[in-house]
Every structure is written in C-alpha cells, then in structure tokens.
Amino acid sequence: MLCGRWRRCRRPPEEPPVAAQVAAQVAAPVALPSPPTPSDGGTKRPGLRALKKMGLTEDEDVRAMLRGSRLRKIRSRTWQKERLYRLQEDGLTVWFQRRIPRAPSQHIFFVQHIEAVREGHQSEGLRRFGGAFAPARCLTIAFKGRRKNLDLAAPTAEEAQRWVRGLAKLRARLDAMSQRERLDHWIHTYLHRADSNQDSKMSFKEIKSLLRMVNVDMNDMYAYLLFKECDHSKNERLEGAEIEEFLRRLLKRPELEDIFHQYSGEDRVLSAPELLEFLEDQGEEGATLARAQQLIQIYELNETAKQHELMTLDGFMMYLLSPEGAALDPSHTCMFQDMNQPLAHYFISSSHNTYLTDSQIGGLSSTEAYVRAFAQGCRCVELDCWEGPGGEPIIYHGHTLTSKILFRDVIQAVRDHAFTLSPYPVILSLENHCGLEQQAAMAHHLRTILGDMLVTQALDSPNPEELPSPEQLKGRVLVKGKKLPAARSEDGRALSDREEEEEEEDEEEEEEAEAAAQRRLAKQISPELSALAVYCQATRLRTLYPAPGAPQPCQVSSLSERKAKKLIREAGNSFVRHNTRQLTRVYPLGLRMNSANYSPQEMWNSGCQLVALNFQTPGYEMDLNAGRFLVNGQCGYVLKPACLRQPDSTFDPEYPGPPRTTLSIQVLTAQQLPKLNAEKPHSIVDPLVRVEIHGVPADCTRQETDYVLNNGFNPRWGQTLQFQLRAPELALVRFVVEDYDATSPNDFVGQFTLPLSSLKQGYRHIHLLSKDGASLSPATLFVHIRIQRS
User: Fold this and answer.
1) Which one is catalytic: 185, 188, 352, 445?
2) Residue 513 resides in a domain
3) What are the Cα distances from residue 306, in Å, to 14, 213, 268, 314, 610?
4) Catalytic choice (185, 308, 332, 397)
5) Angle at CA 416, nearest 5°, toward 123 and 343?
6) 185 included as an active-site residue
7) Same domain (yes/no): 168, 273
8) Predicted confidence (pLDDT) per residue in 351-405, tens digit
9) Is residue 129 part of a domain?
10) Secondary structure class of 207 (helix, strand, coil)
C-alpha cells in the first residue's frame, strides 16, 4: 500500500486547500435525519418523519392507508371476516386487527415481504370463495416465503384501488432506497417506538429501551456516559441535535473509518486518484480514474466535495453499502451468460411436488404453489395427475390425505404466471396415473389453454442431434411425459417416468418381466398426450451415454436421489458425459414424508440439470438452490461449467484433482442483526458467523468464528477463515449468522449464498436474508475476501 504522503503528491498544487475546506465542512458525518419537531409532525405524529423521507406524506393513497380501512378477509365460503387494516407511520409495516389479541409482532406484516399485489379475482382463494364480491373490490397480497396469501374485499372499488396503488408506491420507494437510507429509516422507526410518551425527547430510560430494540446490550455505565456527552442542555433529556449526535455515535463504523483513513491520509477526504488506488487494491475490473470520478458523482453526499471530485467518509460508506460494494458481482445479477447452447448444458431450477404447500401426507394442494415457484425462478414444475370426477383429471399426492386441485386450473396458472419473471422455457413434468380418456382430456387442456406457448412439434429436425437452446424456446412450454414407441418393439424405449415404480422395483428383476411391463404400459399411453412429449420424452435410464446407436438427446431420465448418488459413486465420469447430451431429473426419496429436501449440490456436481426440490420447505438446501440461481438475471437457467458440457470430459466429481484455489475470508463486523424474539426486550443475540463451502465432496467444509456476547447491533470479530478448493467452478459459498447457545442448538439469524465464481474480492458487505429468502435489511456482514488461483 502506498503512503498517504506519496498519494498527495499526485494532486494538483491547488488541491490541498480545497481538501482541507471540504474536510472541515464534513468533520462530522453528513447529518442523519433529525428527530421530528412540532413543525413537521411534532408531538402528534412523529413517526410521519419516516414517510416524509420517503416522499409519500402528501400522497392521497398513502394517507388513506394511514387512516385505515375495514377490509373483509376471505378464507373460505363461510369464513369471511371484516378486519381493520392500517399502514403504520414508519411506512414499512401494516397493522391488522385480530379477533384474539396476540403479541404485537403477530399483528403486522412488512411491506418488503410482499411478493405481489393482484387486483380482482386473481388468486385461487378469491376465484373459489370471492364470487359474492365484485372483482373491482377485491385484491390479493401475496407474500414471499411460506406465509399464506391475504385475500381481501374492500367496501368500494375505489378503496381497493387505493390499497393497490398505495402498496405499489411503497414497494417501489423501498426498492429504490439506498442501504444508507434504509439504515436511517430503520433507526428512526425504532427511535419513534422507544419514545414512549411521544414528546420527541429521549430520557436515559428510553435510550436504554432503544438500545435493546436494536439488539445491543450496552453496559449501563458506558451508555449513560454516552448519553451525558450528548446531553448538552444538561436536562437529562436528549432532543433535536442531541439525539442526532447520539445516533451518529451509535452508528459509527470504526472499521470503515480505518480503511478510509489508510487511503485518504491526514486530510480525511479521498481524491479521485486515491479512490482509484482503493479500487485497484479491491481487484475491481475496469478500475480507471474516470471510473473513480464517476463513483464520486454517484455516491458522494456533500456537494462541495462532489464539485472538487473528492469523496468524504459518508460517500465512501454509501459506496460500500451499495450493490457495487456487495459481495455479489453486480454484473452477474443481470443476464450475462450465453443462452444459445443446448438445454442439457444448463442447470435448470426445478421443483418437486410443486402443487403442495406443506407435507406430502396431509398438506394442502394449491395452484398458488405454482405461482410462488415461478416467482422464485422455477422453470420445471411437477404435476401428479390422477383420475378425477366428471372426466376432469386432478392433481394431488396419490393415496394420501393431501387436497386435490383440477389439472386445468394448474395449466391456467402456468399460462398466467410462468413467464412473469423469466422468458425462458418451462418444463411440465407429468407424473401420469390417468386412464386413456382423461389423458386425452389433459392433452386437450394443454393445447387449448396454452395455445402457441405449447411446443407440439420439433423446431427443426424431428430427430435432432442435440436439444434446442433456451433462447430458441423463449416463452414456450415443454411437456415431459411418456412417448409411444414408433414401433412396439420389445426394447420399448422411453415409456415410464412413474417415480414410485423406480423406487419400488428391484433393479435385478428379470428382463422378460420388464419387456412385458413395457408392452402393457404402451397400451395405457394416450396418443394425444404422447404427441406432446417432443423434447422431454420420459425414459428409464438403462445405459449411460455414449450408448450404442444414434444419440437420444430428447430422452429424459428421472432418478431418485438414492439412485443418482449410486451412479455418481460408481460411474462418476460416465454420468457426467451422459449429462452433456441428455437431461436428467433427480427427485427426493418418497420416504421424506415431511417434504424434507436433500442437498442439490451432489447432483449438480455430476451435471444433472433438473435437480428437483420441495420449494415449500425452507432450509439450507433451498438456500443453495436460491444461491445457484441467484445469478444470470434469476432466469432459472445457469450455464454449467465447461467441464460439465464437453462430451469427452474427463471430470469426475469424486476425484477432482489437487487444490487449485485458496479462498480467504476475514470476517470483520456485522451490522443491525435482527432480534430473534421481539417480544422479549432483554433478549439480545450472541452472534457467530459460519462460512460453508458446498461443492465436490473434497471441497465441502465449514468454519466459524467465535461468538460475540450480547451484541447484534455492531459485533466485531476480525477472524480469518481459509479454504482450499479443488473444483472452484462448482462451489457455492454460504455465509450464515447464528445466535450461539451453549445448552441447545444455535438459532438461525440470517444467511446469504452465492456461487464462488460470482464472489467479488476486497472489502465487501453481505446483505443477509431470512429463512424464507426475504431481505433482512439493513442487516449486513462486512468481510474482506481474497481469492488466489494457482
């Protein structure tokens, strides 16, 4: 690192006086929004300061939401209750009335946890139970994660529209807020809650309450000393600028100040050349003086500094808290991969038992589960099809107590929602238990409802040598199902995809019984449905590619996790080669009654494309899935590494070779971790950080820091974790924060998972997510990352 004196020699002769002037102006960080005064809400509604910062206090729709509305919540034909819903003054939460009062946290939902707001009868619940209410009066609030939809009917169409428009404005403003704005908003929300008598003044007791709310157990003596240092009026109350000063001290980031001062030197501002040096040390691609000047214009808050191309500490913090300062490479969040390769060259986000919202024994089946899967980027969904009454096929988990939904309703949900997030093809994996008549009904629904979306014939040759690309199949729906053989020969390829049969059958059964079973099955396949299996013809995997005869790229095998693991162990490289030409779908064992998942990483290691998981079950397995498909615009397709695409690949995940990459992660600090028990004021987390590597078996490992006692607000570690990797192109890195407990398992606080290939080096913030994948903003980890490749 270059010394500050040498760096300052690069400035023009007139610059030091300007730098000193700017430094004097910003000796203290840019002011946080000051607490409310009577002129802007005062003692009556101090919380409106948060909405004022969002620029929405004068919006008529938001004002109507603040007043509240009596909306009818609809659960069934008989359960339709009127409840009061009201936007809270923080602009982040909506309070709602419950028949039986519960803990405060059970009476709110967060605006940032909303996945979508739909107008009219656009949910399964309102289509079934909302017929008594005009569509114009109805709306559905769909949430991220497992929370059920909120189906509502307003007294008038105008009131429904106010909530639809108001929520849209609040969500758009939240999405546009910088991390610093989110932090300011967050701290002032807690400040408002801690001000028990709403007089815009803070006693020491209220300050202590604030500290507990934001997850820090500060020593009483130290807290009181800090309180007294800010109490310039000496009246045992903080108000106005005094509260602002207290918050500024509370939110100080000493580790960021140290880094800033290493590059800025004595004048405490960064020139463009000094910022460039920081970018170069970070390993930023395309780091130029022009880029440094551009960053100053984007992130610097002080206009005088900006005019003279200088960056203050606040501008530096804004930059590091932005997406450009995050661990995830921002260039990988949009579409950046080649989408013109055959389908077999991609990992494809896939769901198992998609129709279920809970367990596979007695859970609820719902078309909403398909909508949620598509909202998470899923591109391959499963339909378990059974004989239904009135000639209409139904979908449910056969021979269990799970509820039933109509096949045609699911196909309508596919039509309406499959391409809202991603334009790339959707695969409908049919597990068919229907007779010929209802199979023909399924084919009819597929054709009439999907229309031109449905692939009904090959794009080019009817016997292609390779599968078409995602780009060629944009906006199209593929059916994976059984295919009638061209001639009913006894070798009978591509007939059965019934997963339970593969689970139950002994692989060593005699061949003559097998041939007889195939002939019997052939008679059960409807020609109408068979014709729709164009590029995804379900087949029992008998021989790994390359097999004798012409390649069969249109054949798809479905394997249980057990059989897939056996193939990986016994024929790793052959399985990899097979998956360069043909699609393989892997699904969970039927023994997972509670819809638990298996780790998808082992299947990805061998190039399996359709690694199906229970999307309704949160856990580390779904975190890995979300991390794998976090990149490439979250379109549900990720190009496999080159070693998994080459037909003559020598790669074997069981024998990946010697270490090729060293990953070093210095865990520095965390910021604003969430409280795990909001109802217990004195419950403060004892956080530790664990870093996990998920890749080939030789790379899978985990390391963790020590825990920090009673501090979820700004814990510090400064510990370095190091990993040796043999197949870095397949590795996922998972950052986990837990609340340490000496007598029971640690509690989950937050996590973030991403591919190693998308991990940026240098000082980075990691923006934590909840179990359900929702943002925990402003909660972050601050780390230094170094990747050395040999």
Assistant:
1) 352
2) no
3) 16, 36, 15, 12, 50
4) 397
5) 130
6) no
7) no
8) 999 999 876 666 789 999 999 999 999 999 999 999 999 999 999 988 788 889 9
9) yes
10) helix
